[in-house]
UniProtKB/TrEMBL annotation:
Transmembrane segments: 12-35, 47-66, 87-110, 116-135, 147-169, 189-212, 224-246, 266-283, 321-344
NCBIfam families for the chain: acr3 (TIGR00832)
Coiled-coil residue windows: none
Gene3D superfamilies to which the protein is assigned, alphabetical: 1.20.1530.20
The protein, known as: Arsenical-resistance protein ACR3
Family of this protein: Belongs to the arsenical resistance-3 (ACR3) (TC 2.A.59) family.
Membrane association type: Multi-pass membrane protein
The keyword Membrane appears for this protein: yes
Cellular location(s): Cell membrane
Organism whose genome encodes this protein: Coccomyxa subellipsoidea (strain C-169)
Cellular component annotations (GO), alphabetically ordered: plasma membrane
Swiss-Prot/TrEMBL GO biological process terms: response to arsenic-containing substance
Amino acid sequence: MRSAGVFKKLSLLDRFLPVWIIGAMALGILLGYFVPAVERAFSGVQIVDVSLSIAIGLWAMMWPVLTKVRYELLGSILSSRAIWGQLAISLIANWVLGPAIMVAFAWATLPDLPHYRAGVILVGLARCIAMVLLWNQLANGSPEYCAILVAVNSILQIVLYAPLALFYLQVVSGGAGAAGGVHIGFWQVARSVLLFLGIPLLAGIMTRYTLLATIGKRRFENNFMPYFGPVALLGLIYTIIVMFSLQGHEVIANIGNVCRVAVPMILYFSVMFFGTLAVCWKLGTPYDQSVTQAFTASSNNFELAIAIAVGTFGIKSQEALAATIGPLIEVPVLLGLVYVALWLNKKWWGAPRGTTGASA
Protein backbone atom coordinates (compact mmCIF):
# COMPACT_ATOMS: atom_id res chain seq x y z
CA MET A 1 0.00 0.00 0.00
CA ARG A 2 1.35 3.38 -0.91
CA SER A 3 1.68 6.02 1.81
CA ALA A 4 -0.92 8.23 0.15
CA GLY A 5 -3.46 5.41 0.50
CA VAL A 6 -3.98 5.92 4.22
CA PHE A 7 -4.54 9.65 3.79
CA LYS A 8 -7.01 9.07 0.96
CA LYS A 9 -9.05 6.65 3.07
CA LEU A 10 -9.85 9.46 5.50
CA SER A 11 -13.00 11.48 4.97
CA LEU A 12 -12.59 15.13 4.02
CA LEU A 13 -13.48 16.18 7.57
CA ASP A 14 -11.01 13.77 9.20
CA ARG A 15 -8.29 14.39 6.60
CA PHE A 16 -8.01 18.06 7.52
CA LEU A 17 -9.00 17.86 11.19
CA PRO A 18 -5.86 19.71 12.38
CA VAL A 19 -6.67 22.48 9.89
CA TRP A 20 -10.23 22.81 11.20
CA ILE A 21 -8.96 22.91 14.79
CA ILE A 22 -6.31 25.55 14.06
CA GLY A 23 -8.88 27.58 12.13
CA ALA A 24 -11.35 27.36 15.02
CA MET A 25 -8.66 28.49 17.45
CA ALA A 26 -7.73 31.46 15.25
CA LEU A 27 -11.37 32.45 14.77
CA GLY A 28 -12.00 32.21 18.49
CA ILE A 29 -9.02 34.41 19.32
CA LEU A 30 -10.10 37.02 16.77
CA LEU A 31 -13.63 37.04 18.16
CA GLY A 32 -12.29 37.46 21.68
CA TYR A 33 -10.15 40.42 20.66
CA PHE A 34 -12.50 42.28 18.36
CA VAL A 35 -15.98 41.30 19.58
CA PRO A 36 -16.02 41.89 23.34
CA ALA A 37 -19.75 41.12 23.49
CA VAL A 38 -19.07 37.49 22.61
CA GLU A 39 -18.58 36.56 26.28
CA ARG A 40 -22.04 37.86 27.18
CA ALA A 41 -23.50 36.02 24.21
CA PHE A 42 -22.24 32.69 25.52
CA SER A 43 -23.45 33.36 29.05
CA GLY A 44 -27.01 32.95 30.27
CA VAL A 45 -28.69 29.79 31.51
CA GLN A 46 -26.21 27.77 33.60
CA ILE A 47 -25.96 24.00 34.08
CA VAL A 48 -23.62 23.20 37.00
CA ASP A 49 -21.57 26.30 36.31
CA VAL A 50 -21.48 25.69 32.53
CA SER A 51 -23.62 27.86 30.25
CA LEU A 52 -26.29 26.02 28.30
CA SER A 53 -24.74 27.10 24.99
CA ILE A 54 -21.44 25.47 25.98
CA ALA A 55 -23.17 22.36 27.35
CA ILE A 56 -24.91 21.86 24.00
CA GLY A 57 -21.55 21.93 22.23
CA LEU A 58 -20.09 19.41 24.68
CA TRP A 59 -23.06 17.05 24.26
CA ALA A 60 -22.81 17.39 20.48
CA MET A 61 -19.17 16.22 20.67
CA MET A 62 -20.03 13.07 22.61
CA TRP A 63 -23.44 11.86 21.40
CA PRO A 64 -22.48 10.73 17.85
CA VAL A 65 -19.26 9.16 19.14
CA LEU A 66 -21.14 7.05 21.67
CA THR A 67 -23.76 6.12 19.07
CA LYS A 68 -21.04 4.50 16.92
CA VAL A 69 -20.02 2.04 19.67
CA ARG A 70 -21.21 -1.49 18.88
CA TYR A 71 -22.54 -2.41 22.30
CA GLU A 72 -24.45 -5.34 20.81
CA LEU A 73 -21.17 -7.23 20.35
CA LEU A 74 -20.35 -7.24 24.05
CA GLY A 75 -22.15 -10.45 24.89
CA SER A 76 -20.88 -12.60 22.03
CA ILE A 77 -17.26 -11.45 22.24
CA LEU A 78 -17.04 -11.69 26.02
CA SER A 79 -18.36 -15.25 25.84
CA SER A 80 -15.08 -16.26 24.16
CA ARG A 81 -12.52 -17.34 26.77
CA ALA A 82 -9.65 -16.44 24.42
CA ILE A 83 -10.48 -12.72 24.57
CA TRP A 84 -10.06 -12.38 28.33
CA GLY A 85 -6.27 -12.45 28.28
CA GLN A 86 -6.12 -9.66 25.72
CA LEU A 87 -8.81 -7.76 27.61
CA ALA A 88 -6.70 -7.96 30.78
CA ILE A 89 -3.72 -6.48 28.91
CA SER A 90 -5.92 -3.67 27.61
CA LEU A 91 -7.34 -2.88 31.05
CA ILE A 92 -3.84 -2.68 32.56
CA ALA A 93 -2.55 -0.50 29.73
CA ASN A 94 -5.56 1.82 29.73
CA TRP A 95 -6.45 2.16 33.38
CA VAL A 96 -3.20 1.48 35.26
CA LEU A 97 -0.20 2.33 33.07
CA GLY A 98 -1.68 4.98 30.76
CA PRO A 99 -2.85 7.46 33.40
CA ALA A 100 0.30 6.96 35.50
CA ILE A 101 2.59 7.54 32.52
CA MET A 102 0.75 10.71 31.48
CA VAL A 103 0.98 12.03 35.05
CA ALA A 104 4.72 11.29 35.09
CA PHE A 105 5.30 13.10 31.79
CA ALA A 106 3.08 16.01 32.87
CA TRP A 107 5.08 16.50 36.05
CA ALA A 108 8.43 16.05 34.27
CA THR A 109 7.69 18.65 31.59
CA LEU A 110 5.29 21.05 33.34
CA PRO A 111 6.49 21.21 36.97
CA ASP A 112 5.95 24.98 37.13
CA LEU A 113 2.53 25.05 35.41
CA PRO A 114 0.08 23.28 37.76
CA HIS A 115 -3.11 24.28 35.95
CA TYR A 116 -1.86 23.31 32.49
CA ARG A 117 -0.49 20.13 34.04
CA ALA A 118 -3.89 19.29 35.51
CA GLY A 119 -5.45 19.68 32.06
CA VAL A 120 -2.90 17.28 30.57
CA ILE A 121 -3.61 14.78 33.35
CA LEU A 122 -7.33 14.96 32.57
CA VAL A 123 -6.50 14.07 28.95
CA GLY A 124 -4.47 11.07 30.12
CA LEU A 125 -7.39 9.74 32.16
CA ALA A 126 -9.84 9.86 29.24
CA ARG A 127 -9.53 6.60 27.34
CA CYS A 128 -10.17 6.79 23.62
CA ILE A 129 -13.60 5.76 22.35
CA ALA A 130 -13.89 7.71 19.10
CA MET A 131 -10.84 8.34 16.93
CA VAL A 132 -9.39 4.93 17.84
CA LEU A 133 -12.04 3.41 15.59
CA LEU A 134 -10.58 5.40 12.70
CA TRP A 135 -6.92 4.70 13.48
CA ASN A 136 -7.72 1.01 13.93
CA GLN A 137 -9.47 0.83 10.58
CA LEU A 138 -6.65 2.60 8.73
CA ALA A 139 -4.02 0.32 10.31
CA ASN A 140 -6.01 -2.85 9.53
CA GLY A 141 -6.71 -3.69 13.14
CA SER A 142 -9.44 -6.04 14.30
CA PRO A 143 -12.81 -4.22 14.09
CA GLU A 144 -14.52 -6.70 16.42
CA TYR A 145 -11.81 -6.47 19.06
CA CYS A 146 -11.74 -2.68 18.76
CA ALA A 147 -15.51 -2.60 19.26
CA ILE A 148 -15.27 -4.56 22.51
CA LEU A 149 -12.48 -2.36 23.89
CA VAL A 150 -14.35 0.82 23.01
CA ALA A 151 -17.55 -0.48 24.61
CA VAL A 152 -15.74 -1.56 27.79
CA ASN A 153 -13.85 1.74 28.07
CA SER A 154 -17.06 3.72 27.52
CA ILE A 155 -18.69 2.02 30.49
CA LEU A 156 -15.60 2.04 32.72
CA GLN A 157 -15.13 5.79 32.27
CA ILE A 158 -18.43 6.41 34.02
CA VAL A 159 -17.14 4.51 37.06
CA LEU A 160 -13.39 5.21 37.09
CA TYR A 161 -12.82 8.71 35.71
CA ALA A 162 -13.86 10.68 38.80
CA PRO A 163 -11.94 8.62 41.40
CA LEU A 164 -8.84 8.49 39.20
CA ALA A 165 -8.97 12.26 38.63
CA LEU A 166 -9.23 12.86 42.35
CA PHE A 167 -6.41 10.39 43.04
CA TYR A 168 -3.94 11.84 40.53
CA LEU A 169 -4.79 15.51 41.02
CA GLN A 170 -5.22 15.52 44.79
CA VAL A 171 -3.36 12.55 46.26
CA VAL A 172 -0.46 11.94 43.85
CA SER A 173 -0.03 15.61 42.97
CA GLY A 174 -0.78 16.70 46.52
CA GLY A 175 -3.29 19.20 45.23
CA ALA A 176 -0.30 20.84 43.56
CA GLY A 177 -0.34 23.11 46.57
CA ALA A 178 3.32 24.00 46.47
CA ALA A 179 3.17 24.85 42.79
CA GLY A 180 0.05 26.90 42.53
CA GLY A 181 -2.89 25.00 43.97
CA VAL A 182 -5.21 22.82 41.89
CA HIS A 183 -7.96 21.76 44.28
CA ILE A 184 -11.07 19.83 43.30
CA GLY A 185 -13.66 17.73 45.07
CA PHE A 186 -14.95 14.32 44.06
CA TRP A 187 -18.44 15.63 43.30
CA GLN A 188 -17.05 18.37 41.04
CA VAL A 189 -15.59 15.77 38.72
CA ALA A 190 -18.30 13.15 39.21
CA ARG A 191 -21.11 15.51 38.25
CA SER A 192 -19.21 16.57 35.12
CA VAL A 193 -18.70 12.91 34.19
CA LEU A 194 -22.38 12.15 34.72
CA LEU A 195 -23.49 15.26 32.85
CA PHE A 196 -21.10 15.21 29.90
CA LEU A 197 -20.49 11.45 29.57
CA GLY A 198 -23.45 9.82 31.29
CA ILE A 199 -26.13 11.75 29.39
CA PRO A 200 -24.61 11.33 25.90
CA LEU A 201 -23.77 7.67 26.69
CA LEU A 202 -27.42 7.01 27.50
CA ALA A 203 -28.49 8.99 24.44
CA GLY A 204 -26.02 7.09 22.25
CA ILE A 205 -27.20 3.68 23.46
CA MET A 206 -30.87 4.61 23.02
CA THR A 207 -30.26 6.12 19.58
CA ARG A 208 -28.30 3.09 18.36
CA TYR A 209 -30.69 0.40 19.58
CA THR A 210 -33.80 2.32 18.55
CA LEU A 211 -32.59 2.93 15.01
CA LEU A 212 -31.15 -0.56 14.57
CA ALA A 213 -34.56 -1.94 15.50
CA THR A 214 -36.53 0.44 13.28
CA ILE A 215 -34.44 1.01 10.14
CA GLY A 216 -31.98 -1.89 10.27
CA LYS A 217 -28.20 -2.11 10.44
CA ARG A 218 -27.53 -1.35 6.77
CA ARG A 219 -29.53 1.88 6.69
CA PHE A 220 -28.22 2.87 10.12
CA GLU A 221 -24.59 2.58 9.00
CA ASN A 222 -25.00 3.80 5.42
CA ASN A 223 -27.75 6.41 5.66
CA PHE A 224 -27.83 7.70 9.23
CA MET A 225 -24.30 7.69 10.68
CA PRO A 226 -22.60 9.41 7.68
CA TYR A 227 -24.79 12.45 8.42
CA PHE A 228 -24.97 12.17 12.21
CA GLY A 229 -21.29 11.32 12.80
CA PRO A 230 -19.91 14.71 11.65
CA VAL A 231 -22.03 16.42 14.30
CA ALA A 232 -19.29 15.44 16.77
CA LEU A 233 -16.70 17.41 14.81
CA LEU A 234 -19.04 20.38 14.52
CA GLY A 235 -19.56 20.27 18.29
CA LEU A 236 -15.79 20.14 18.83
CA ILE A 237 -15.16 23.07 16.45
CA TYR A 238 -17.95 25.10 18.05
CA THR A 239 -16.60 24.42 21.55
CA ILE A 240 -13.05 25.37 20.52
CA ILE A 241 -14.26 28.64 18.98
CA VAL A 242 -16.09 29.50 22.20
CA MET A 243 -13.15 28.56 24.42
CA PHE A 244 -10.60 30.53 22.46
CA SER A 245 -12.90 33.53 22.13
CA LEU A 246 -12.90 33.64 25.93
CA GLN A 247 -9.20 32.81 26.24
CA GLY A 248 -7.72 34.82 23.38
CA HIS A 249 -5.74 37.17 25.64
CA GLU A 250 -4.53 34.23 27.75
CA VAL A 251 -3.30 32.34 24.69
CA ILE A 252 -1.39 35.30 23.23
CA ALA A 253 0.10 36.31 26.55
CA ASN A 254 1.26 32.75 27.36
CA ILE A 255 1.92 31.26 23.94
CA GLY A 256 5.14 29.61 25.16
CA ASN A 257 3.32 27.79 27.97
CA VAL A 258 0.57 26.72 25.59
CA CYS A 259 3.17 25.19 23.25
CA ARG A 260 4.81 23.37 26.15
CA VAL A 261 1.58 21.43 26.68
CA ALA A 262 2.36 19.52 23.47
CA VAL A 263 5.53 17.96 24.91
CA PRO A 264 4.04 15.51 27.47
CA MET A 265 1.32 14.53 25.00
CA ILE A 266 3.76 13.66 22.21
CA LEU A 267 5.87 11.65 24.66
CA TYR A 268 2.81 9.85 25.94
CA PHE A 269 1.40 8.91 22.54
CA SER A 270 4.78 7.56 21.41
CA VAL A 271 5.66 5.58 24.55
CA MET A 272 2.22 4.02 24.93
CA PHE A 273 2.00 3.04 21.26
CA PHE A 274 5.43 1.45 20.88
CA GLY A 275 5.42 -0.05 24.36
CA THR A 276 2.04 -1.75 23.91
CA LEU A 277 2.81 -2.92 20.38
CA ALA A 278 6.16 -4.40 21.46
CA VAL A 279 4.61 -6.27 24.40
CA CYS A 280 1.90 -7.76 22.19
CA TRP A 281 4.50 -8.79 19.59
CA LYS A 282 6.61 -10.47 22.26
CA LEU A 283 3.54 -12.36 23.51
CA GLY A 284 2.83 -13.64 20.01
CA THR A 285 -0.42 -11.71 19.60
CA PRO A 286 -1.61 -11.45 15.96
CA TYR A 287 -1.02 -8.10 14.26
CA ASP A 288 -4.68 -7.12 14.00
CA GLN A 289 -5.22 -7.46 17.75
CA SER A 290 -1.82 -5.99 18.61
CA VAL A 291 -2.35 -2.78 16.64
CA THR A 292 -5.83 -2.43 18.14
CA GLN A 293 -4.26 -2.69 21.60
CA ALA A 294 -1.60 -0.13 20.70
CA PHE A 295 -3.97 2.52 19.37
CA THR A 296 -6.48 2.02 22.18
CA ALA A 297 -3.73 2.48 24.78
CA SER A 298 -2.02 5.45 23.11
CA SER A 299 -4.96 7.61 22.02
CA ASN A 300 -7.30 9.55 24.26
CA ASN A 301 -10.88 10.75 24.38
CA PHE A 302 -10.13 14.46 24.03
CA GLU A 303 -13.85 15.26 23.76
CA LEU A 304 -14.40 13.92 27.28
CA ALA A 305 -11.27 15.60 28.65
CA ILE A 306 -12.43 18.97 27.31
CA ALA A 307 -15.92 18.45 28.70
CA ILE A 308 -14.66 17.50 32.17
CA ALA A 309 -12.13 20.34 32.25
CA VAL A 310 -14.81 22.86 31.27
CA GLY A 311 -17.39 21.42 33.65
CA THR A 312 -14.98 21.18 36.59
CA PHE A 313 -12.68 24.19 36.20
CA GLY A 314 -14.62 26.49 33.90
CA ILE A 315 -14.56 27.47 30.25
CA LYS A 316 -11.87 30.13 30.83
CA SER A 317 -9.54 27.92 32.86
CA GLN A 318 -6.00 26.92 31.92
CA GLU A 319 -7.05 23.31 32.53
CA ALA A 320 -9.65 23.59 29.76
CA LEU A 321 -7.16 25.31 27.47
CA ALA A 322 -4.60 22.53 27.96
CA ALA A 323 -7.21 19.85 27.24
CA THR A 324 -8.15 21.66 24.03
CA ILE A 325 -4.57 21.35 22.76
CA GLY A 326 -5.05 17.56 22.91
CA PRO A 327 -6.73 16.96 19.54
CA LEU A 328 -4.37 19.35 17.76
CA ILE A 329 -1.45 17.16 18.86
CA GLU A 330 -3.10 13.76 18.85
CA VAL A 331 -4.51 13.73 15.31
CA PRO A 332 -1.25 14.23 13.32
CA VAL A 333 0.80 12.07 15.72
CA LEU A 334 -1.62 9.13 15.61
CA LEU A 335 -2.00 9.43 11.84
CA GLY A 336 1.78 9.16 11.58
CA LEU A 337 1.70 6.08 13.81
CA VAL A 338 -0.74 4.43 11.38
CA TYR A 339 2.06 4.42 8.78
CA VAL A 340 4.49 3.09 11.39
CA ALA A 341 2.08 0.27 12.29
CA LEU A 342 1.69 -0.79 8.66
CA TRP A 343 5.48 -0.82 8.25
CA LEU A 344 5.98 -2.84 11.44
CA ASN A 345 3.39 -5.33 10.24
CA LYS A 346 5.88 -6.28 7.53
CA LYS A 347 8.97 -6.11 9.77
CA TRP A 348 7.65 -7.87 12.89
CA TRP A 349 4.74 -9.99 11.71
CA GLY A 350 6.07 -10.73 8.22
CA ALA A 351 3.15 -9.42 6.17
CA PRO A 352 3.89 -9.95 2.44
CA ARG A 353 5.51 -6.93 0.78
CA GLY A 354 3.00 -4.73 -1.00
CA THR A 355 0.06 -5.76 1.22
CA THR A 356 -1.49 -4.33 4.35
CA GLY A 357 -3.56 -7.24 5.48
CA ALA A 358 -3.28 -8.20 9.13
CA SER A 359 -2.02 -11.54 10.15
CA ALA A 360 -4.58 -14.09 11.21
